[in-house]
Write a structure and sequence with these properties.
Blueprint (H helix, E strand, L loop, with lengths): L2 H6 L13 H12 L10 E6 L2 H7 L15 E7 L7 H18 L3 E6 L11 H9 L6 E9 L30
Antiparallel strand pairs: 1-2, 2-4, 3-4
């Protein structure tokens, strides 16, 4: 059952310095390739980064929200060729969460860094910065970077009582008092 995994999953931004083993990386790579995509077009490409210098460069991808990658032993850059499929954003988002849930199931922690539509800080977009750092061909776009590693923090899951159950509607949309 997936719900117990979701109950405890949290974004992890602090990792132990221990590198991931090859078999762990292989499992994560297979999970990425098993991600569903619209009409089986598989517009995504994944760059798995373990090099410490490269991870430091990825950590500088955007002004806010990517610094945690400096301490991650592994990052997956989720890219796509938009010419292959018009719903590449959705396909990349699915792959991003699939690899995060796979990491969680392995006892690893992860965090998503949004790249698409985010500024780098020097007038370029985060995507333009990463295209240069990674040597990515111009036709590819970067959706996200997922940092993965052995957690060095253990925040509790969100209690069930804190979930916004008012966001669930049965059969029809139920207006709120503000509408």
């Amino acid at each position: 059952m997936l719900l117990p995994l979701l109950e405890k999953r949290r974004s992890i931004r602090k990792f132990q310095p221990e590198p991931l083993r090859k078999d762990e990386i292989d499992i994560l790579a297979e999970a990425l390739l098993r991600s569903p995509s619209s009409r089986g077009r598989n517009p995504w490409e994944f760059i798995v980064v373990t090099d410490e210098v490269m991870l430091d460069e990825l950590a500088l991808a955007k002004e806010h929200g990517s610094a945690f990658l400096k301490g991650a032993p592994l990052a997956v850059v989720v890219c796509a060729d938009p010419e292959r499929c018009d719903v590449w954003v959705e396909d990349c988002a699915i792959a991003s969460i699939i690899v995060q849930l796979t990491a969680e199931s392995m006892g690893l922690g992860s965090c998503w860094a949004q790249i698409r539509l985010r500024p780098h800080g020097d007038g370029r977009s985060a995507e333009e910065y990463l295209r240069e750092v990674l040597g990515l061909p111009k036709r590819y776009v970067v959706a996200s970077i997922i940092g993965i590693g052995h957690p060095d923090e253990n925040p509790p899951g969100h209690p069930k009582e804190s979930l916004p159950f008012d966001k669930i509607h049965i059969n029809t949309y139920r207006r709120s008092a503000e509408e």
